[in-house]
Design brief:
- The structure is a single chain.
- The protein is mostly helical and 435 residues long.
- It has a single domain, classed as Up-down Bundle (Growth Hormone, Chain: A), CATH 1.20.1250.
- 76% of the residues lie in helices and 0% in strands.
Length: 435
């Protein structure tokens, strides 16, 4: 496989900036939006089932079909980036207006409109994210794959940083951060609109500047034939031939992605409970907690960027120790969210999670990519995403049982998440980091 130039690596990874702005606007605001339009906290987790459910089906299919796609003008993965981006743009204009169409606070119509909008948002987000993940095993050799995963996630965290601070910055500029009961504040709406525009521009940048390898070049560089590339193999057979690393990483991923949805779902509520001592979504204190969640997410994004630069230097010998330390620190951060009562403790908590975040987005993918042979990389990466989606579905669909067990307090959900993260940090040692 040829060595990529620095310019090529920049072109391959920079577009993830815009994709993550869109994704982070959704994950960072979903809990706030649904509670604002009247969702009961005890059933809030059900709305978070939709994103991983979309990914569970869409990403393997995108991998399967894009492995077999080649359009001379657009390439193998880029056609899917175009389609996903266009749908994401439209849905991002609709999502923050879930409470502004006259359905009424807490009405089933408002909640269903929000839920369906989120479902389409995630379907399109999964389609637009996958090309960025797939071009790395397509085009990177083993020596550069770890660097590319880290670079991609540094750009992604920069995008998240922009998304998380948008509402806070707009509020500071005088845009309203409260609204009539049941409506999403204008600060959140404008943040979504701006993010949609940035998403389109970043996708356009990638489509115009990334030149994918032709089928002939792919076959040559991966040491396979065109026939191997186009081989019609069932999902079952591909899974049966998947490397052992694929399955063992799946065990690790279960505990990671059981924990993370609780952070997305319950952070605003936990911060409102512990720091502002309010539970009413229509209150100024609750909306202030929503903005503060954006700020502490910006903190973890900055930490992820800085640590990500260090992670570009990781080797096979240091990847697993770094992963374990990172996830244990994230677990400690989650415990600080559960028990902390000040803004300062929340900043420290999310800074620690920032170390975890860059680790879980880069190290498992580096280990997996180095174990693939080039035949069915797209579909295997898509199927690997199921290991991230299934635990999210389990966590979100059982949260209505877990929340009462921890006293009905959203902050206590972070105790469960902390234990799960630390287990994942230990389990990485069952995975061998080999080519």
């Amino acid at each position: 496989m040829p060595k990529l130039t620095k310019l090529q690596m920049f072109m391959m990874t920079f577009g993830f900036f815009g994709t993550q702005i869109a994704f982070s606007m959704q994950t960072g605001s979903m809990g706030r939006i649904f509670q604002t339009i009247g969702a009961d906290p005890n059933s809030l987790g059900f709305f978070f089932v939709l994103p991983p459910l979309a990914g569970l089906f869409v990403q393997p299919l995108i991998g399967y079909f894009s492995d077999r796609t080649w359009l001379p003008r657009f390439g193998r993965r880029m056609p899917y980036l175009i389609g996903g981006t266009l749908v994401s743009f439209v849905v991002m204009l609709l999502l923050p207006n879930s409470g502004s169409l006259g359905f009424g606070f807490g009405s089933a119509t408002a909640l269903w409109f929000g839920a369906i909008t989120v479902l389409f948002m995630d379907l399109s987000a999964n389609v637009s994210q996958q090309p960025f993940k797939m071009i790395i095993p397509d085009m990177a050799n083993e020596d550069q794959s770890g660097l590319l995963w880290s670079m991609q996630n540094v750009w992604g965290n920069l995008g998240s940083l922009v998304a998380f601070t948008f509402p806070f910055i707009l509020t500071s500029a005088g845009v309203a951060n409260t609204a009539p009961r049941g409506e999403v504040p204008m600060s959140v709406k404008i943040a979504f609109y701006a993010s949609a525009v940035i998403l389109v521009l970043s996708a356009l940048f990638t489509i115009l500047n990334v030149k994918e390898y032709t089928p002939e070049e792919m076959a040559k560089y991966h040491g396979i034939t065109i026939t191997d590339q186009n081989e019609q193999v069932s999902f079952k057979n591909i899974l049966q031939s998947a490397p052992k690393v694929f399955w063992l990483l799946g065990v690790v991923e279960f505990f990671i992605w059981f924990a993370v949805p609780y952070m997305w779902t319950y952070s605003t509520g936990a911060l409102a409970e512990n720091i502002w001592h309010v539970t009413d979504p229509a209150s100024a204190g609750y909306q202030a907690a929503g903005n503060w969640f954006g700020i502490v997410q910006a903190v973890y994004s900055v930490v992820s960027i800085l640590v990500g630069l260090l992670f570009t230097k990781l080797t096979k010998r240091t990847r697993r120790p770094a992963f374990t330390i990172s996830l244990v620190l994230g677990g400690i951060g989650f415990l600080l969210i559960a028990f902390g009562t000040t803004k300062f403790t929340s900043v420290i908590a999310f800074a620690l999670f920032g170390i975890t975040w860059i680790a879980i987005l880069s190290i498992p993918f580096t280990i997996l990519t180095n174990s693939l042979d080039g035949k069915h990389d797209g579909i295997l990466l898509g199927l690997f995403n199921c290991f991230m989606c299934i635990p999210q579905i389990v966590a979100s669909s059982t949260s209505y049982l877990v929340l009462p067990l921890v006293g009905g307090k959203m902050a206590n959900m972070f105790i469960v998440a902390a234990i799960s993260l630390m287990l994942a940090g230990i389990l990485i040692w069952i995975v061998k980091d080999n080519k």
